[in-house]
Amino acid sequence: MDYVFAGYRVVIADDGLVSMSECMTDIVGADSYNWEMFFTDRALAEQACPSSGQLFAVGFPREDVPALLADFEKFEPIGAAGIPDRLLAGEPMPCGDVLGCELVGWDSGPSVWHTWVCLGGLVDDVRDATGVVPGEHGLIQDVEQARLAARWLTASELGDPKVFLWVPALLVRPAG
What we know:
Blueprint: E1 3-12, E2 26-27, H1 42-48, E3 53-61, H2 65-73, H3 83-89, E4 96-107, E5 112-115, H4 122-130, H5 143-156, E6 167-174
Helix pairs in contact: 4-5
């Protein structure tokens, strides 16, 4: 599976869950206004990462990028600052320890990324319909299973009115 690099995310979570969602973790902003929540530079992300934090690269399947960009265009994606440009650039994911995939969707209302874990009952709904369940750290370990679950969740419209398009975000702990 070919993933496009969206940026580095610095998060603080104390419950063992690995998530790029603002609903489940505290996010360290990449700019002084906290509008840009993804770092483009790994060194800057590492400097901003507190000892209690986690740093990982986030990517989206290349074939999902057009739909994700169209979803952003429906709204004023202030909280998505920079992501459309990075997705259009099509940079490959950095190497590292693949943690798994998280089903996420953009909510322009409060400008946040939701995860299937934060919107009540979606994990159970996906499991019942597809058999896909989260594994270690709340992530889906199989990329194709994550894509199946995201497609089903989008078609089900169970994320409405917060999320209309679900995509699997690949989370990678950078090497070295």
